[in-house]
Design brief:
Elements: E1 6-12, E2 21-27, E3 32-38, H1 54-65, E4 72-78, H2 80-88, E5 125-128, E6 136-139, H3 142-151, E7 154-156, E8 162-163, E9 169-173, E10 180-198, E11 201-207, E12 217-218, E13 224-225, H4 226-231, E14 234-235, E15 240-242, E16 252-253, E17 258-268, E18 282-286, E19 292-295, H5 301-310, H6 321-331, H7 341-344, E20 461-462, H8 473-476, E21 480-482, H9 510-513, H10 587-592
Parallel strand pairs: 7-19, 14-20, 15-16
Antiparallel strand pairs: 1-4, 1-21, 2-3, 5-18, 6-9, 8-15, 9-14, 10-11, 10-12, 10-13, 10-17, 17-18, 17-19
This protein binds a DNA duplex (11 and 11 nucleotides) through strand 8 and helix 5.
Length: about 600
DNA sequence: TCTAACACTTT
DNA sequence: GAAAGTGTTAG
């Protein structure tokens, strides 16, 4: 019952500009781009929808890409039909294939087993259509991503939205220098399971919750010429994840305790390639090592530690050298007095470090399996086993972030990034990890940019999440519906073909960009509200599947009700109430944790 | 599980 | 100095 409609909203992220907010829809059946320019976020005249053609959109894009105002940012979709269709199919009609490549030793449906927390394809997933075959995408800081991935990456999701760490940054090559492209991201379910973290490991605990409305995050530079994208790292760092189903900020909505796979889409946007047309040229890349489980609080302390050690904003939680000694001593069975973190600050012991037994010296071991230097030319295979209990991976968690600036890595001063330190020479080229982290895809094996030295001066693009400084419900709570062209079915490899039950016949998420062209025309202005979530299907889906399974159709959430903004904290002007939490970095917790350390 | 307050950090 | 991004903590 897929009605072939997708809901789009295009929002201007230009905070400093007139905050023009474009709520728009792409009608791929007619190649009309309907835009409702809400001249200002304060404008509630949402009803005045001005229909513009694709050229208008291009002009908007063009203005943004030229460095002037008008760059687009929060461009995301909501697939109403998908989920409606799934509902019609009883929520179990996604045609999820049997686990063809799953581990035969893996339990097929045993929540108590210890499934890998990572779908681990043999290679980066990619899908390109005509004219885009030459596009190559390299994941920046792939080594860091892999470190997280080996432990089981977790991403915090909050109501207000939380950035991903590591940040999603890529180097794109193979673009026509003069052709314009739109770069966007989405985050799709990696499977249809809900996970739990118990006994120091992730395991499937049941069926996934209904998927959140799928949203696309368009890089604010879009569209821009190939030379523009290729000139420097493309950062989606500002992308935020939220668990707020009614999120009005354009953040990507996820479910906690579910596994997701970020994807990058490169869409040709030149005049002869109307965005969304049947001939739309696009390219989709997904890096398996960037898959993660969304959580509201970290479950695996190894992940916590990795975050602390690598995210500069968490520097305050990093342990001091003394504390490192302390930890090492503990590892050796020696006892040390417990020092409250508050007293030890700012050099505090990293709490609950799963790497207690790992001397930092390990990090510099170039030949070691966990070398932080990605340019060493050693083979980069996927993590040996994601399903492995964490304690088995202790020996591998030797990544220790050293002090560095600009963790954001792609900033002009990013040369000081941890991973760049080994390259004092500082080539002007940034270091990019090739997409072929794993065995390269045939025909898509990226060249060897991984050996490229760093960029010393290349600035990094920063994607913009949302336009209006103070987004208003009326600005965000509506959208048009539009179908997507089947030609834009990126990440076909990500999601094996599945039965035509739902809209994701080829690529659930990709089909969000695609797949609908042949379906009914969108109902412009069709209300989005009250569309229930679809249920997720995929009976018998094996959590151990090494490739991503089709994500469930995305539901369209009701329009977010106007949510009152919480008043400012009452601390202002008055005594601060007793501290309830946070900041209380007490070493006790860490030291009391009986975490075995496997030094072997 | 999830949230909000918190101290600390980078930008 | 302000704003925003961190993990921690209590509830």
């Amino acid at each position: 019952m897929y009605d072939g409609t997708f809901l789009f909203r295009l929002q201007d992220c230009e905070r400093s500009s007139t905050s023009t907010l474009y709520v728009s829809t792409l009608d791929f059946s007619t190649l009309k781009f309907s835009i409702s320019p809400v001249l200002h976020p304060s404008s509630s005249d949402i009803g005045n929808r001005e229909r513009l053609n694709l050229g208008s959109l291009r002009r908007i894009f063009r203005s943004g890409s030229d460095g002037t105002s008008g760059g687009c940012a929060g461009f995301f979709w909501e697939n109403r039909a998908a989920y409606l269709g799934n509902m019609a199919n009883g929520g179990d009609a996604f045609g999820l294939p049997d686990r063809p490549d799953s581990d035969p030793d893996s339990p097929k449906d045993n929540k108590n087993e210890n499934p890998p927390i990572r779908s681990r394809p043999a290679s980066p997933q990619s899908t390109c259509n005509q004219g885009m075959e030459g596009v190559k995408v390299f994941l920046h800081e792939a080594e860091l991503w892999s470190k997280f991935d080996e432990v089981g990456t977790e991403m915090i999701i909050t109501k207000a939205g939380r950035r991903m760490f590591p940040g999603y940054k890529v180097k794109v090559t193979g673009l026509n220098p003069k052709t314009k492209y739109i770069l966007l991201m989405d985050v799709v379910p990696a499977d249809d399971h809900r996970y739990k973290f118990a006994d120091n490991k992730w395991s499937v605990t049941g069926k996934a919750e209904p998927a959140m409305p799928g949203r696309l995050y368009v890089h604010p530079d879009s569209p821009a010429t190939g030379v523009h994208w290729s000139r420097q790292l493309v950062s989606f760092q500002k992308l935020k994840l939220t668990n707020n189903h009614l999120d009005p900020f354009g953040h990507i909505i996820l479910n906690s305790m579910h596994k997701y796979q970020p994807r990058l889409h490169v869409v040709k946007a030149d005049e002869n390639n109307g965005f969304g047309s049947k001939n739309t040229a696009f390219c989709t890349r997904s890096f398996p090592e960037t898959a993660f489980i969304a959580v509201t609080s970290y479950q695996n302390h190894k992940i916590t530690q990795l975050k602390i050690e690598n995210n500069p904003f968490a520097k305050g939680f990093r342990g001091s050298d003394d504390m490192e000694l302390h930890r090492m001593a503990k590892l050796q069975g020696k006892d040390y007095p417990v020092v409250p973190r508050t007293a030890a600050r700012p050099r505090v012991c990293s709490s609950g470090s799963p790497y207690q037994g790992e001397p930092r010296a390990l990090q510099g071991s170039p030949g070691g399996p966990r070398s932080p230097y990605p340019c060493e030319g050693r083979p980069r295979g996927p993590p040996a086993h994601y399903a492995a209990p964490q304690h088995l991976q202790h020996g591998q968690q030797a990544y220790h972030g050293t002090k560095r600036k600009a963790e954001d890595g792609c900033a002009p001063d990013d040369r000081q990034h941890l991973y760049k330190k080994p390259y004092p020479g500082g080539s002007p080229e940034p270091y990019y990890h090739p997409a072929s982290y794993a065995p390269p895809l045939s025909g898509h094996a990226p060249p060897g940019p991984s050996d490229a030295p760093y960029s010393a001066d290349v600035g990094q693009r920063q994607a913009c999440m949302f336009a209006s400084p103070e987004p208003r419900l009326e600005d965000l709570g509506w959208a048009y519906a539009c179908p997507l062209p089947p030609s834009m079915t990126p990440a076909l490899h990500d999601y094996p073909p599945y039965s035509p039950h739902g809209p994701y016949s080829s690529s659930p998420q990709g089909s969000r960009l695609s797949g609908a062209a042949h379906h009914g025309s969108p109902s412009l202005g069709e209300p989005l509200a009250h569309a229930p979530y679809q249920t997720q299907g995929s009976a018998g889906q094996d959590p151990h599947s090494r490739r991503l399974t089709p994500p469930p159709p995305q539901g369209v959430l009701p329009l977010p009700p106007l949510r009152p903004v919480p008043p400012a904290l009452p601390h202002a002007g008055g005594p601060r109430p007793p501290r309830q939490g946070g900041g209380a970095r007490v070493e006790l917790r860490l030291l009391s944790r009986p975490k075995p350390v496997d030094l072997g």
